[in-house]
């Protein structure tokens, strides 16, 4: 039996850092300056694919190695949906080929979605080094979320024959459910996003937040005791509780605050700008801003909760995908301000810190 190498590798993590550095060199100019308009996504797609296949600075890359071997040699569906198990059985024996066949289509779907939303490819590239790469490479769910983005594009930006467009979009949304078990949970918030008002709803939600935060403690306790809900988060639920325990100390809490800060700041300025100048943004950007805000809001309701703070990080991860669409329009419509630059620098600082920390920790 072939034994895969499971131990975290500092040297391989350094390779991942170098790959990130290449993407950084391509797009870092946009941190302080406006980016020229472009619809050429080849480098964006290639960056997503290569950095995802060789994501050696991510813990999950090594965890998937173990899952891959168990599926390959013991025919056990471990922590993944049936599609990924079938892919293991159908492909030649090679873990990186399996990753390529998962994250490759995910990258192409993501790029296709960005093209349908008519986003500036250079701005999307800038967002890669800010927060997209960090979130895209860590989970097979990238394939499901990318398909979700494409499906929503046919609903918020329909083709001339609207009925067929809506139908096709709905089919893609349905198919995305099979690509990650949590997508169904996040899809529940789509109707809420449709009717949410960025101007009035934003103010009301801020006022209600302290009261809802207290209520979530009791609600989350009930969720933790619900086997149906727990099954949707997979068989490695204990891992999240262990991670949660490690974040309860002071250092862990400080790191969480720093990691969440740029998302909250970016979301605030996107919402404020779209509310103030709605005519400058597409209908898709309006919807994606509302959807991202709702998901981030839910994420913050679980933030540092003693029972279920791990739900916060997973919901924030889901919010990243609609956030890409609305923030790409925001950064393209507005001249780059010092505040925007500082937010982008903070994103990049968090990313680099994680790379360096993992390299140091795995030596």
Description:
The protein is mainly alpha-helical and 363 residues long. 75% of the residues lie in helices and 0% in strands. The protein is built from 17 helices and no strands. It has helices spanning 10-27, 42-53, 59-74, 82-90, 95-116, 121-136, 141-156, 162-176, 183-187, 189-195, 200-224, 227-232, 237-246, 250-276, 283-301, 309-333, 338-361. It is globular, with a radius of gyration of 20 Å. The two termini are 28 Å apart.
- Global shape: globular
Average pLDDT works out at: 90
Would you list the SSEs in sequence order as H and E?
HHHHHHHHHHHHHHHHH
Look at the helices and sheets and give the structural class: mainly alpha
Q: Sheet with the most strands?
A: none
What count of helical segments does DSSP give?
17
Measured between the Cα atoms of the first and last residue, the distance is 28 Å
Low-confidence stretches: none
**Helix proportion range:** over 70%
Cα radius of gyration in angstroms: 20 Å
Number of strands: 0
Strand content: under 5%
């Amino acid at each position: 039996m072939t034994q895969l190498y499971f131990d975290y590798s500092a040297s391989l993590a350094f390779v991942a850092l170098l790959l990130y550095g290449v993407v950084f060199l391509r797009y870092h100019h946009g941190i302080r300056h406006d980016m020229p308009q472009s619809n050429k996504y080849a480098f964006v797609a290639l960056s997503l694919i290569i950095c995802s296949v060789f994501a050696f600075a991510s813990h999950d890359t090594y965890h998937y190695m173990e899952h891959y071997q168990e599926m390959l040699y013991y025919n056990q569906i471990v922590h993944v949906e049936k599609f990924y198990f079938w892919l293991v059985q159908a492909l030649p024996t090679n873990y990186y080929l399996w990753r390529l066949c998962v994250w490759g289509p995910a990258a192409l779907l993501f790029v296709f979605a960005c093209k349908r939303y008519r986003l500036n490819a250079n701005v999307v590239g800038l967002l890669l080094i800010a927060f997209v790469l960090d979130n895209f490479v860590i989970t097979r769910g990238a394939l499901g979320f990318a398909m979700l983005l494409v499906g929503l594009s046919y609903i918020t930006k329909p083709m001339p024959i609207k009925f067929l467009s809506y139908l096709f979009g709905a089919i893609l949304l349905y198919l995305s459910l099979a690509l990650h078990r949590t997508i169904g949970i996040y899809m529940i918030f789509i109707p809420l996003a449709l009717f949410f008002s960025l101007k009035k709803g934003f103010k009301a939600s801020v006022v209600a937040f302290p009261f809802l935060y207290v209520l979530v403690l009791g609600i989350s306790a009930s969720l933790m005791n619900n086997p149906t809900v727990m099954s949707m988060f997979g068989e490695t639920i204990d891992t999240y509780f262990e991670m949660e325990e490690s974040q309860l100390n002071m250092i862990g809490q400080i790191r969480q605050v720093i990691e969440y800060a740029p998302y909250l700041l970016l979301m605030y300025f996107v919402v404020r700008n779209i509310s103030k100048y709605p005519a400058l943004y597409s209908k898709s950007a309006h919807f994606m801003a509302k959807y991202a805000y709702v998901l981030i809001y839910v994420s913050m309701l679980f933030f540092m909760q003693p029972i279920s703070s791990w739900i916060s990080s997973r919901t924030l991860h889901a919010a990243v995908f609609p956030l890409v669409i609305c923030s790409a329009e925001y950064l393209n419509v507005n001249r780059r301000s010092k505040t925007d630059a500082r937010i982008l620098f903070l994103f990049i600082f968090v990313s680099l810190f994680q790379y360096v920390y993992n390299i140091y920790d795995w030596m």
